[in-house]
Amino acid sequence: MSxxxxxxxxxxxxxxxxxxxxxxxxxxxxxxxxxxxxxDGVVDTAESAIVALATQTGVAPSGFASVGIGIPGQVDRGLxxxxxxxxxxxxxxxxxxxxxxxxxxxxxxxxxxxxxxxxAAHLMRLSGTVAYLNLGTGLSAGFVVDGVPxxxxxxxxxxxxxxxxxxxxxxxxxxxxxxLETVASGSALRTYWPAGGDHPGRVLLSxxxxxxxxxxxxxxxxxxxxxxxxRLLVLALDPHTVxxxxxxxxxGAPLVDGIRGELDLAAATSPFLTELxxxxxxxxxxxxxSAAAVGAALAGNL
Length: 302
Fold this sequence. Notes:
The chain folds into two domains: about 5-115, Nucleotidyltransferase, domain 5; about 125-285, Nucleotidyltransferase, domain 5 (2-Layer Sandwich). By secondary structure, it is an alpha/beta fold. It has nine helices and 13 strands. InterPro entries: ATPase_NBD, ROK.
């Protein structure tokens, strides 16, 4: 294996996925392990992933070209610091510096959804402007324009989940009411459909099939909220493609067809929306995709 291999890592609340990419951007090795919470735990997890990839590829842990990490929270790329990543128990962590000190490798950080947008564009061979809509525990978006990520002046581009527009005005942890995240996210399903348990997306469709009216209401809100997000992204950025990603995409065709149906229904009464061809822009990230980890590896050069 070439020493030019790059590592990409997606550190999430429950698991960390890592890949090694060759010069052509092809995945040549992959690993997944549980994320250990807290500052030391996150650093330990990242180091363990590097060691696992080193074992698979035959490259010494210090022999990789670079490490890119996608991580939730507020990311300062210049300082290599992540803040307020509460789902992994981190308030402020200079992750790049600490991991580099342990491994001797160049380490860069990026927001996890931005990394996923980069990876999705690469793996799905998408050109032009790509918007990535992350329907997960939370709700946010990432953007790639002609292969270059759009991060914004303060690294918060794409935080559309905290746009307060929903007329139900449900309270959001951010302090506002009516945020899109209060209807179109896994956390919204848990809060407003408690019968779904800790992982409501896994049982939502079966509950609907069994006649659960509250599950149906939660699903309808999710679909309508996601469709609103697609309209928002198209009107704000006019992307060629809107990729649906995040864990809720695993609801599959019922969710995606529902979103497209909502978009077509709105377009049927609006010549303006008809011209935008909203539903035709929607694609879905494949279920087995390692987009966030791949994007993190590529992001160091972007």
